[in-house]
Amino acid sequence: MTRLRHRPALDVRVEIRGELPREDAEYARARALDTATVLGPDAHALRLRLTRSRDRSVTRPALAQADVELADVGPVRVQLATGTARESVDLVLGTLAGRAGRLREQGDIGFAVAYESAYRPQFADRPLAQRRIARHKAVVLARRTPEQAALELLALDRRFHLFADAATGRDSLVHRCSPSGTVELCTVGTGAVPTLDLAEAARLLWITGRPFVDYTDPGDGRARVLYRRFDGHYGLIAPVSDG
């Protein structure tokens, strides 16, 4: 893994994962620095990560992720994939700059971005017998209203966003609905989230082909999210108590 760093007034970091021609790496760094100049004085810590997949089942192997922190707004993220590294860099940085501008001007990015992007990264076609839970993530859920959670879902370019309802304290989740692009709310204890064990959730994820399954754990009654990773494995998110 190679890291290319440059530190102007805005902290800019470019991270390269996998094999990539030196010219493409330098192009990514130059474009990131150019983008930093137009993001404005309220932008902090721009990061661009470029990954080249070796999996032959992936037709768009150049994955780019760009993150920036905006003062009084919070983190903004875009993640896209195309056939070439330069195309991914141009697309992800242009989308990030446009999204940051809309957040400043209107306070939200509009629900139009809830539609699944044609350039969303692909899942590697890993055989079922080889799949495993490659990441277990324990999180303390932030208290949010459903409206706040929906805006964070879109700003962070996620398929789902787990949070604690500000009014009830219940584990809740907002997610994108394909192909309509609408955002739906699910809350533990309301009947909208099934009670499953991990094996049942994994089977449901495999049968449905969905990118994730949200469920209630029968042991502690709290939410869980089992999701597909782009490398073909699974990830598991479980909430924990604060302190």
Structural class: alpha+beta
Order of helices and strands: EEHEEEHEEHEEEHEEE
Give the strand line-up of the largest sheet.
Answer: 1-2-3-4-5
Q: Level of helix content?
A: 10-25%
Mean pLDDT equals 87
Termini distance? 35 Å
The portion of residues forming beta strands comes to 25-35%
Radius of gyration: 19 Å
What's the helix count?
Answer: 4
Backbone shape: globular
Largest beta-sheet details? 5 strands, mixed
Number of strands: 13
List unreliable stretches of 5+ residues. none
Entry keywords:
243 residues; 4-stranded mixed beta sheet; alpha+beta; 13 strands; 5-stranded mixed beta sheet
Overall description:
The protein has 243 residues and is of the alpha+beta class. Helix content is 25%, strand content 34%. The chain has 4 helices and 13 strands. The protein has a 5-stranded mixed sheet with strand order 1-2-3-4-5, covered by helices on one side. A 4-stranded mixed sheet has the order 6-13-12-11, with helices on one face. Strands 7-8-9-10 form a 4-stranded mixed sheet, with helices on one face. The protein starts with a strand and ends with a strand. The mean pLDDT is 87.
Concise overview:
By secondary structure, the protein is of the alpha+beta class.
Topology:
Blueprint (H helix, E strand, L loop, with lengths): L1 E5 L5 E6 L4 H17 L4 E10 L9 E9 L3 E9 L2 H22 L26 E7 L3 E2 L1 H10 L4 E6 L5 E6 L6 E5 L10 H11 L3 E5 L6 E6 L5 E6 L4
Parallel strand pairs: 2-3, 6-13, 7-8
Antiparallel strand pairs: 1-2, 3-4, 4-5, 8-9, 9-10, 11-12, 12-13
Helix pairs in contact: 1-2
